[in-house]
Amino acid sequence: MKLMHFVNSLHTYVMTRILHSSELEFDEELQEADDLERIMAIHNTYARRIYERCLLHEKMSVVKEAVTRLLNLALVLHSRWMDGLEKLSRSSLADMEVEFERCHVFLSSFLSSVVRRGSFVHLESFAASLAS
Fold first, then answer.
1. pLDDT confidence of 87, banded at 50, 70, 90?
2. Which residues, 6+ apart, have CB-to-CB distance to 72 below 8 Å?
3. Which pTM value belongs to this model?
4. What share of the chain is helix, strand, coil (3-state, %, to 5)?
5. Residue 128 in 3-state DSSP?
6. 89 and 76 Cβ atoms separated by less than 8 Å
7. CA 108, CA 71: separation in Å to the nearest integer?
């Protein structure tokens, strides 16, 4: 359930804070554009905003790595589940749970910390979701 909660939280963050909010900001700024140069500048800002919010900026590389590990963990669990329960050992489940907890605790504490400092405010809802 914890892994599913993480995946759902990440999905919600991507759909609401990255795609929806960024598009609304883009549309609002675009309405005020009065020439091609301004439209290009607005588009560049939009693309940069998406890039940063998708955790692709170098400053967020540790977060991206933890998110990637958790998503890979979900894929491994799915693959082993599809191979059959008899091939899914308690030991491998325990190892996956340890890896999940390690990454989840790191993400939750790191994101809460940067949001408290006022950095990366777009991550506030994702951080809150991971903390719950």
1. confident
2. none
3. 0.83
4. 85, 0, 15
5. helix
6. no
7. 15
